[in-house]
Amino acid sequence: MSGENYSLRDYQQECVDAVLSDYTNGHRRVAAQLPTAAGKTIIALNLMQRLPGPALALAHTDELLEQAREKMEYFGLVPELEKADARASLDARVVPGSVQSLRNSRLERYPVNHFRFLWTDECQHAPADTYRAIYERFPGALHFGCTATLDRLDGEGYDGIYEKVSYETNIKELIAAGWLSRLITRVLPVSIDLRQVRRTAGDFNLGDLSEAIGKALTEAADAVVANIADRQRVIVFVPSVNEARIFAELCAARGVAAEFVSGVCSDRREKIARFRSGETKLLVNCIIISEGFDLPEIDCVVLLRPTQSRALLCQQIGRGCRIWPGKEYCRILDFFWLTARHKLCAPASLEGVEAEPTTTAGESDEETEGPSRKTLEDHLREHGADRYEEMDPLRDVPFDPLNVDEYLVLPHEFRDPYARQVPTLRQIETLVRLGIPAAKLINRGIVSDVFDILKSRWARKLATIPQARYLTALGYRDPWKATFDEASQYLSRRRERVHR
Known about the structure:
The protein is of the alpha/beta class and 500 residues long. It has 18 helices and 17 strands.
């Protein structure tokens, strides 16, 4: 197969068509949310081939830049790298550029509006000042950003960067369609004490986390080795370089071909090459392989780095989502109930937040109680992963994550001890006011899911729950995707016709 005769998958073509349509209709800066392994690079390169250049492809890691460069060459584009000692010419049709390198005089070397198309890979990083400076240099360019997760733990949105989300799909839809690998989680009964772990910038403090996990590495290595005998490639996520080195040594001592890799390894390319070839079965890493690492043979992901960020979790799990001959599913070894606590499918929102919604501006619906992000830390401190359990983390996820009524009629089974607890009276009262039947709110797992759906609806300015139900009864097309203004205008026109 060559780049010239490659056919886009159906959803990839839908994404390309949606982006081009939005450009035609006057939008200049759009984003798309597709899960890891969905082929976001292929979509971006197809757009590059269709749109006038020159084009700039922005990324923040060597791995992402190298991946983009290789695929550009495969598809017949001639990239010139802008990174470190490599400098692209001003005649280059396509430039894969390092965000860290494109600054000050190096950025100013390019005339204002030199690039006519910008692609930001892993665009959840786009609000950073380093990215904004590049966008401001080329304000007339069409801009396309893609990522697996638009939400950000720091709560910063995409104001002034993207005007709308042109397209989105989720991991469950692509698994059902056969484009991604099934996921099966095993929660392992290893007790890791996180009671002394503080939080920094919304997530667990890495220093505290490293100390806590370091005390349980031997027990964790025993559990991992016992669960990977039938696996081909195993990727392990840990919080620090020291834990990566020690855990690799522990696994190697137990007969597994294991190595560790980090950003400070001078031989990381050689180590990754050995992992790709199969010479190494288990690769322990400290974050550097959470984005842009394509190896479809990975059939086991080990989560030894707890996080409160859904985006980071999805990136880590995404390393095992690619399909491969003979790969029936990817096994997720989870020490912290992370796959039960976080939503692996969530609607895209340019609000960028990973936070609970509010009922009105400035009024918290939860305050300090209920399923806030803080309760994940409380849960880990109180329970940890205290027993072995296996589950499909996507089994109960509805296909339409904006339809709360569709979600409420599904059967739900929550294995997380916190999620099985009775909801608070305040939670129930808040949701009842918003149109959710109290009889359906039987545990905090359902309450948390409903709040997530409502947050997504409010971020998109969609119709209220009563409006969506009324539109459904009237036969309105896609009632759960109608905006509040569309619903209000439609119902107002209908009332006027009735009273004539």
